[in-house]
Structure formats: C-alpha cells, structure tokens
Amino acid sequence: PLLADLDVTWHMVGHLQTNKVKKALELFQVVHSVDSLRLAQELSRRASRPLTVLLEVNVAGEASKFGLSPEEVPSVAEAVARLPHLELVGLMTVAPLARDPEEVRPVFRRLRELACALGLPHLSMGMSDDFEVAIEEGATMVRLGRAIFGPRPQA
Predict the structure, then answer these.
(1) What is the pLDDT of residue 3?
(2) Reduced 3-state DSSP string for the chain
(3) How many whole angstroms separate alpha carbon 73 and alpha carbon 133?
(4) Is residue 141, in this structure, part of any structural domain at all?
(5) How many domains does the chain have?
(6) Range of the domain at 119
(7) Domain-embedded: residue 5
(8) Exposed e or buried b for every residue in 99-132, given b needs 16+ CB within 10 A?
C-alpha cells in the first residue's frame, strides 16, 4: 500500500464482510469489528502475520447494528483466543443514538463488565457525541471522526 513505509498502526472500525478479509489483512493491523466466530476463523485462516482483534458486541440489541449479543461473547471469545494469528485484546460497541450521552452509559458499563469478566484490557467505545461518558466507563479507544474533522459535507 501507498503508506506502508509509515510507522503507523492502522485500525479497521467498520463492518467487515468475509469476502473482504484478504484486502483488510493487507491494510490493517487491528480489526475492531469481529462480529462472528465465522469472521474470526476466516481472518485466522488467511492471516500470514499476527492480527490484533476486538469482538464487536451489540449491547443494546439493535436490529440495525452488527455484533454479538452479550450472551454470546464468552464462548466466542474463548474460541477466538484459540485461533492462530489472532490476538484478542478487547471488545467494541457502537451505542444507540441518544440526545443525552448519559442515556448510553449503561451500554458502556455493560461492555466494561463483559471485558473485565474475560480479562480483556481494551474497550473501543464512544464516538463524537458520547466519548466523554465512554471514557468515564473505561474506554481505551474512542472513535472521534466528526469531533476532529467536522461534519461530512453535504452531497
């Protein structure tokens, strides 16, 4: 890739389809959005180097979002931890949209509780509108696109 010579760790945070795994492995060193055991197995099968991963958890159970249910996380985490080439380091969630960031605190708290129970050190949670609450609840990685770059231009 064009920027391969830079000393940068590239993170993938969006949904990853299994048919895009090969390309993702060429570009990223960390994948935040492992939302199924099948995807983890495909990443492991195709990886030729260590890959850091986080499991995506749909804490609020929103039909419009990807991710494991909180109940699935322990068994999937155990299976992923045994896969070659993958290093499971944490959990990721996207909280529901809310007018008041305090409304999503329980989502972040639940993810922290899950990660603590599994001994996972990283929590990828919080975006431009709710990152302060996410940090208070233990986020180690936040996703701040709009807070840094401003709103997307209108098409």
Answers:
(1) 74
(2) CCCCCCCCCCEECCCCCHHHHHHHHHHCCEEEEECCHHHHHHHHHHCCCCEEEEEEECCCCCCCCCCECCCCHHHHHHHHHCCCCEEEEEEECCCCCCCCHHHHHHHHHHHHHHHHHHCCCEEEEEECCCHHHHHHCCCCEEECHHHHHCCCCCC
(3) 23
(4) yes
(5) 1
(6) 11-147
(7) no
(8) eebeebbebbebbbebbeebebebbbbbbebbbe
Tokens 């708290």 correspond to: 109
CB atoms inside a 10 Å sphere around CB 12: 18
pLDDT tens profile 92-147: 999 999 999 999 999 999 999 999 999 999 999 999 999 999 999 999 999 998 88
Question: Whole-model pTM above 0.70?
Answer: yes
Q: Return the CATH number at 103.
A: 3.20.20.10
d(CA 141, CA 138) in angstroms, rounded, equals 9
> Who's near 34: CB < 8 A, 6+ residues apart?
16, 40, 43, 53, 54, 55, 56, 80
Determine, yes or no, domain membership for 1.
no
- Between CA 110 and CA 60 the distance in angstroms is 10
Q: Assess if residue 153 is contained within a domain.
A: no
